Amino acid sequence: MDYFETQDENSKNVELFQYKNENYYAVYGWSSRDRENVPNPNTVWNLAKGKTLTPGTPITLQWTSPKGVIFEREISIDEDFLFTIKQRVFNQSNATIDLAAYGILARHSAPETIGFYILHEGIVGYDDGELVELSYDNITDQKYDDRERANLEIYEITENGWIGFTDKYWMSTLVGEPKSEFKMASKYNEANDIYQADIRHPLQSIGSGQSTEVKTYLFAGAKEVNTIKTYQKEADFADFIDTVDWGWFFFLTKPIFSLLDYCNKLVGNMGWAIILLTLVVKTVLLPLAYKSYVSMSKLKQLQPEMEKIKERAAGDRQKLQAEMMELYKKEKVNPAAGCLPILLQIPIFFALYKVIFVTLELRHAPWIGWIKDLSAPDPSTILNLFGLLPWANPFPPDSLLFIFSLGVLPILLGISMWLQQKLNPAPTDATQAMIFAWMPWVFMFMLGTFASGLIIYWIANNMITFAQQYMIMRSQGYKPDVFGNIKASFKRKKT
After folding, report:
1. What whole-number distance in Å separates Cα of residue 27 and Cα of residue 102?
2. I need a labelling partner for 126 at 20 to 30 A (CA). Which of 181, 204, 418, 437 fits?
3. What is the C-alpha to C-alpha distance for residues 127 and 248, in angstroms, rounded to an integer?
4. Measured distance CA(29)–CA(12) in Å, rounded
5. Is residue 145 classed exposed, middle or buried when 0-12, 13-18 and 19+ CB atoms within 10 A define those classes?
6. Exposure string for 201-234, b = 16+ CB within 10 A, e = fewer
7. pTM of the predicted model as reported, rounded to 2 decimal places
8. What integer pLDDT is reported at residue 491 of this predicted model?
9. Rounded CA gap, 404 and 347, in Å?
10. C-beta separation of 457 from 274 below 8 A
11. What is the mean pLDDT of residues 165-192?
12. Residue 338: pLDDT over 70
């Protein structure tokens, strides 16, 4: 793979399969009641064709059983680590043999997982239109039974499907040849602590002098969205794009990633692509934002009249509400209109958070200067004078102390939220004013450990919102006194 474990210069390439330590590997073969007449894990195969497995140069392995049955396995690979496995049998014995081809992905012991609720790690499969996801804890309930070697009827037949193990950025997936019958299952071998994902093909009777071939695929590589889409389209791997964990809000996460990927192709940098995406989203939502800010402007202009109503009501809440509603109706103002753009931003924000968290395309993706990985928190910190001193943040992102060593981006986020508040005077209610005053800085600490890409989106969103709101309010005759509101907030602090 062209991916590295870390961003250090001497970092090793990411290795997915590790057979030497019996950790993670794929096994292909044939099952039969006559076990001596089929290859087993200890069988020594001969190299019949080819020398080195590379894209464009497949290899063929061959083994002949004691009874004269020839087994061949042709293996080819493409540049993105999709293996094509063709298993052939030539029955040169004097008797009919019953065989069933299989492919197995085995993982010894459950790997260390991130354990975050928005990310699925474990078994992922697709069975005739149904997506199946099982965590490693769930797989342990599916016990291994040695009788499955001979009794294949416990599997359900499918014609379009795949099954395998998924990590955050990598996966290994067994894919059956489209439109051919096969069976899939996952199981747990408790005695040896092995997790398995299997594809089993129907039992075949091969007479003397006859032959058969079974073709399957194995993808063992990076979860690059465009690569996966290509396999889905060109190789007819049904809904293969769902190997990426798009979540329950896939109807938002998928188009948001597509838009982000398109923006990245335009500007050539994921950080600038996020800012361009933010601009596109804010442009699409501008008609709603316009109505909202117009309504807010009218409310500001109605403040004197609203104060008079409060004086007339003199503590009579029912009268106050009735007169306020009459005023809103007369002036055609909706006091709740200001909430609509915020409500629409919430699902978009969480969908983008999901995209940044699960997609490989943002892993180790740089932006500018010190931001070398948009999927990781801002590495700068006040403890190293924001990069001026030659040492890194001593606190890892999952440490509670990390929030006390905030980087540049989280601080800019807090400032952008604070500045956006200053478009309006502080609430007259003391409690509300205190909540609003603290809110930007609370969010600054809360989001300090989030991915840099998400913080960039939020800062860009705040600044574009500030510009939109300022211009729309001015067009309605209300001039926000930003500097006056800033001065007023400092005066309140002094008093």
Report:
1. 8
2. 204
3. 18
4. 32
5. exposed
6. beeeebeeeeeeebebbbbbbbbbbebbeebbee
7. 0.84
8. 66
9. 28
10. yes
11. 92
12. no
* Pairwise CA distance, residues 347 & 339, whole Å: 14
How far apart are the C-alpha atoms of 378 and 372, rounded to whole Å?
9
The C-alpha atoms of residue 108 and residue 314 are separated, in whole angstroms, by 74
Confidence of residue 323 (pLDDT cuts 50, 70, 90): confident
- Which residues on adjacent β-strands are paired with residue 216? 85, 176
